[in-house]
From TrEMBL, chains A, B:
<dbReference type="GO" id="GO:0008173">
    <property type="term" value="F:RNA methyltransferase activity"/>
</dbReference>
<dbReference type="InterPro" id="IPR029028">
    <property type="entry name" value="Alpha/beta_knot_MTases"/>
</dbReference>
<keyword id="KW-0489">Methyltransferase</keyword>
<feature type="domain" description="tRNA/rRNA methyltransferase SpoU type">
    <location>
        <begin position="72"/>
        <end position="209"/>
    </location>
</feature>
<dbReference type="InterPro" id="IPR029064">
    <property type="entry name" value="Ribosomal_eL30-like_sf"/>
</dbReference>
<dbReference type="InterPro" id="IPR001537">
    <property type="entry name" value="SpoU_MeTrfase"/>
</dbReference>
<dbReference type="Pfam" id="PF00588">
    <property type="entry name" value="SpoU_methylase"/>
</dbReference>
<dbReference type="InterPro" id="IPR029026">
    <property type="entry name" value="tRNA_m1G_MTases_N"/>
</dbReference>
<dbReference type="InterPro" id="IPR051259">
    <property type="entry name" value="rRNA_Methyltransferase"/>
</dbReference>
<dbReference type="GO" id="GO:0003723">
    <property type="term" value="F:RNA binding"/>
</dbReference>
<keyword id="KW-0808">Transferase</keyword>
<protein>
    <submittedName>
        <fullName>TrmH family tRNA/rRNA methyltransferase</fullName>
    </submittedName>
</protein>
<dbReference type="GO" id="GO:0032259">
    <property type="term" value="P:methylation"/>
</dbReference>
<dbReference type="GO" id="GO:0006396">
    <property type="term" value="P:RNA processing"/>
</dbReference>
Length: 215, 215
């Protein structure tokens, strides 16, 4: 389910297939049987947003598969917050990361909050749910994992053909996955306080992807 | 107003001065007249959170002043989202940025949502509200501004003693401020689509601060 003209337009221009469109006027060039003329007060009732948009689209969930990994792939181990997943998908789009592998306990990428926060990036990033342990064992490329006690990422030579694993908001990467990771990396803290919380997973992803791509 | 034991403990251990603490049991070592024994169902009523915490503290808003700027200072031009401001304060704490200057139309840093999302970082970052145009005119250090058409930040030699200006979520940096900026910088896009939205202001801040501090 996607709300708002911009996101719906991007989904219509992608591999996503429309099921039904609910809108208060005919905005898009779609077939008649896909369109349901809907008054604004009814759109308000079905909307997930605080400020409902003038159009709401219902799309079929696409089948997504991983091909051979030729470039950097991001993998998430149990990310639960829809806003964080949405931000990470948007970052993958910006930094040209085609494949995002999510553990089966990661929040659903078709959750309306995720769809909304990706701002259309969901159409350009291939999001696949997998048993992360089996996925890592099936690959023979280097895997980087982010840990508080990892090596300083600014001093590492990062390989592009690799998997970057990020962990759950509260618990990080779980021990079973940790055992499968070849290199532990970390963003050093420059502020001096020991009270400082570690970076949020979405902001950490921003910095790691920047480090991978900057050279 | 701050909710939750961790945040309240950090505020108590800082320059912030407690006015009243509402909690269902005596947790902190504070004077009797500051403590209001409050049942959980009443805490629920006064809480700003969906999942109320067991303690809620009311603190006096501190007087904060800018000293002489000896190191990197971050300035925000009209950031409106409390979550973005909270994330940026947390990033300043992580990257050792002491001073954050906010334009007067930036969201209030003492908004409960901001306090909550800073995770205690608000006690370690000096947040000052100023007329941004007057502030920039009063400084004779280099100012960097983030623009879509700025120079590639990865190829710039960044000066630490400077001001980094970030703009509003929808409109970026306003033209009056743009005229006062010495260097325009930008994070290049690696994905190929023209539909990709620019990075969110909080994730962009993460990458820029990383670039300033990494060398």
């Amino acid at each position: 389910m996607a709300e708002g003209i911009k996101v719906i337009r991007e989904l219509l221009n992608s591999d996503f297939r429309l099921d039904k469109l609910f809108a208060s006027e005919t905005i898009f060039d779609i077939s008649k049987d896909q369109f349901v003329l809907t008054e604004e007060r009814d759109l308000k009732k079905i909307s997930f947003l605080k400020t409902p948009q003038t159009a709401l689209g219902l799309f079929k969930i696409p089948q997504q598969n991983l091909g051979v990994l030729e470039d950097l792939t991001v993998a998430l181990d149990g990310v639960r917050d829809p806003g964080n997943l949405g931000t990470i998908i948007r970052l993958c789009d910006w930094f040209g990361v085609k494949n995002l592998v999510c553990s089966t306990d990661t929040v659903d990428c078709f959750n309306p909050k995720v769809i909304q926060s990706t701002m259309g990036s969901i159409t350009r990033v291939n999001v696949v749910y997998k048993n992360l342990s089996e996925f890592l064992q099936s690959q023979d490329i280097v895997s980087y994992g982010t840990f508080m006690d990892g090596e300083n990422v600014y001093q590492k030579r990062l390989q592009q053909k690799s998997v970057l694993v990020l962990g759950n908001e509260a618990n990080g990467i779980n021990p079973e996955i940790e055992n499968l990771i070849s290199e532990k990396i970390s963003i050093p803290q420059f502020g001096k306080s020991q009270e400082t919380e570690s970076l949020n997973v979405a902001t950490a992803t921003a910095i790691f992807l920047s480090e991978f791509r900057r050279n």
